[in-house]
Amino acid sequence: MGRRVALAVHPDSGQGAAARMAGTVAERVRAEADRLALITASSAEEFRQRVSECRASGLDALVVVGGDGAAHQAVQCCAETEVAVGLVPSGTGNDFARALGIPQHPLVALDALVSALRHDRRRRVDLGRVDDAMSGARWFGTVLCTGFDAAVNARANSMRRPRGPRRYDMAVVRELVSLRPRPVVVDTDAGRLTVEATLVAVGNTAYYGGGIPICPAATCDDGMFDVTVVGPVSRLSLARILPRLRSGTHVDHPAVHTVRASRVRLEGSADWPVFADGDPVGTLPVRLTCVPGALSVLG
After folding, report:
1. What is the mean pLDDT of residues 208-235?
2. Which of 131, 187, 222, 279 is catalytic?
3. Of 280, 281, 279, 233, whose CA–CA distance to 67 is shortest?
4. Residue 4 and which of 97, 119, 146, 215 are 20 to 30 A apart at CA?
5. Which of 106, 111, 89, 85 is nearest to 98 (CA)?
6. Which positions ≥6 away from 264 have C-beta within 8 Å?
7. Helix segments in the chain, DSSP class H
8. pLDDT (tens digit, 9 = 90+) per residue, 1-25?
9. Which one, of 169, 133, 171, 180, lies nearest residue 152 by Cα?
10. Is pLDDT of 110 > 80?
11. What is the structure's pLDDT at 1?
């Protein structure tokens, strides 16, 4: 039986970059597929329904043109299945693609993807699972965070200007004004930490926020999370820590705690937002599990 591929393009990703790539990607992928289905959707629910329909009729790979939000939706559809996810990064952050070693330039990434399709090169990587008694399991590929960084993410999502990475920087400045550490319990299979926290990040991979290595040692093939906890710090101290995030040296600061664990439960203030892969997933408490080899990826 030949290769059955679905192609999903998220046209708003990367300020329209994904839409501009769509025709080129479709042409290149069609040459490697015996059957190609094009997926367009106006909501996450419609996207999952369309992927589900493709899986029901047989699907080998799901190619996604977009950013981390698009990758996040693909992960929800393909976790713990044999459907391989292929990424052509065309968003603002592209952190999941970065962690997978996929080239950041979309045309170079497309060349690698086409080669992987042609030779059926795929591998399995870990995912994080968020277990919720009300809504069931939710998956993430990069980082789940709560506290200051999640508040920054929420604020950035609500801002219309400036566009691009500067919007995130502006959100950081605005959230610093209202910074207030909260009591948090980080309960893991490696131990329990009770702390006044500024932020908590649970990394299946290292990066969030467009290449910030918040959990610099995290990899997606070791069956473990890397957890970064920033304890109580003043606005001035946090402002001094933030530039160190880009180099990953923030983990050396005395206010920063790190732990490796396969299971994590976060408890704390119910008004603290929780984000995963840059998408909102609710509020505390949350229970997380690192699931080894949960996702098949092309390349």
Report:
1. 93
2. 279
3. 279
4. 97
5. 89
6. 186, 187, 188, 202, 225, 227, 287, 288
7. 17-30, 44-56, 68-78, 95-99, 106-119, 148-158, 165-177, 235-245
8. 458 999 998 766 656 666 788 889 9
9. 171
10. yes
11. 42
Q: Could you tell me which of 192, 185, 52, 30 has the C-alpha nearest to residue 118?
A: 30
Specify the length of the chain in residues.
299
CA dist., res. 283 & res. 274, Å (int):
5
And the tokens for 140? Answer: 């993430």
pLDDT of 45 above 80: yes
Mean pLDDT value across residues 209-230: 95
In terms of pLDDT, which residue wins out, 153 or 168? 153
pLDDT score of 172 more than 90: no
Burial state string for 138-153 with b = 16 or more CB within 10 A and e = fewer than 16: bbbbbbbbbbbbbbbb
Residue 207 C-alpha from the chain's centroid: 8
CB atoms within 10 A of CB 268: 23
149 among known catalytic residues: no
